[in-house]
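Exercise 7. Given the encoded structure of a 324-residue chain, write a plausible sequence.
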């Protein structure tokens, strides 16, 4: 049975990258390609308006709502304005389908209790994109828990060997790069929409953990390939620039740990919060005092589940004093 697959892309002020992403997307046999423009100021709106392709739908937000707000808008549009859509696949404006994703997807036999899929995401040079590696919640699986205790993140993320599998691999969470969602699960209220207040980072992990808690399965499908030209991390280390990204990273991670760990949450806080602060050593000396200040505020707000700070307030908090 033919499944209508819609691509949902969120963009903000990265027109050069968006051009690559849109070209790769319109070239594929998606039912629709939906681009959510987070109020870009770099000519994105004009460029998108100049594309004459009936498959393309452009949604422009009145303000930058971050990736979380952008995907919220895109998911809502697909669920409520495209009644023929069966599945959506979402990704950022610096990512794109690296093989014939719609054709490969159409050949999959997906059970009704599978509500989402994760693609294999690679860096443009060919290596696995670590920030997009799917994972199993170690608090839900004994084997993953033991693995996490002995091997760290390598013990509960899917392995390199899993990327070579010819069959789907069970997972619990992944990123919103190459993430497929069964649209019926949104329409029937089984799952909701991404949480706008998170702005950026961990909105995807939180969304998929909640999907799993709703009783749906999440598959990692190695045959579906995406490329991600991501430049956020430094050598794939936990280093974020600009500094405002640190705030969202740590604040939202606390929400991930709360959802994932349940009764273990207080213990996790004792382990993870010090590790947040210790990453100061990866930053330049002139950045460290600002990093520590931003991290402290992120932890405080995360513990209180306070998501009220505007993006402009976060940027002001994170402003660096350049070295002299």
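Solution.
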């Amino acid at each position: 049975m033919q499944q209508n697959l819609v691509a949902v892309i969120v963009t903000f002020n990265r027109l050069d990258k968006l051009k690559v992403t849109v070209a790769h997307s319109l070239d594929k046999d998606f039912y629709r390609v939906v681009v959510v423009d987070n109020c870009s100021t770099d000519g994105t709106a004009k460029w998108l308006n100049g594309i004459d392709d009936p498959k393309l739908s452009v949604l422009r937000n009145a303000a930058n709502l971050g990736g979380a707000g952008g995907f919220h808008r895109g998911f809502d549009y697909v669920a409520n304005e495209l009644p023929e859509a069966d599945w959506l696949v979402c990704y950022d404006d610096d990512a794109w389908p690296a093989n014939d994703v719609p054709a490969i997807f159409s050949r999959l036999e997906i059970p009704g209790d599978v509500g989402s899929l994760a693609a294999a995401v690679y860096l443009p040079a060919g290596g696995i994109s670590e920030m997009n590696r799917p994972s199993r919640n170690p608090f839900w699986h004994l084997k993953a828990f033991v693995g996490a205790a002995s091997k760290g993140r390598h013990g509960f993320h899917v392995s390199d060997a899993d990327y070579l599998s010819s069959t789907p691999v069970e997972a619990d969470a992944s990123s919103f790069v190459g993430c497929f969602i069964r649209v019926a699960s949104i329409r029937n209220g089984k799952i909701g929409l991404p949480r706008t207040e998170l702005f950026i980072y961990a909105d995807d992990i939180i969304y998929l953990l909640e999907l799993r808690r709703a009783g749906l399965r999440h598959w990692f499908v190695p045959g579906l390939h995406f490329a991600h030209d991501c430049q956020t991390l430094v050598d794939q280390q936990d280093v974020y620039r600009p500094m405002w990204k640190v705030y969202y990273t740590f604040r939202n991670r606390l929400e991930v740990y709360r959802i994932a760990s349940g009764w273990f949450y207080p213990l996790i806080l004792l382990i993870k919060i010090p590790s947040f602060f210790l990453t100061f050593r990866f930053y330049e000396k002139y950045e460290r005092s600002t990093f520590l200040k931003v991290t402290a505020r992120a932890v405080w707000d995360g513990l209180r589940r306070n998501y009220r700070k505007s993006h402009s307030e976060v940027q002001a908090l994170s402003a660096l004093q350049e070295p002299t």
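Remark. The radius of gyration is 19 Å. Students should compare their own answers with the one above.
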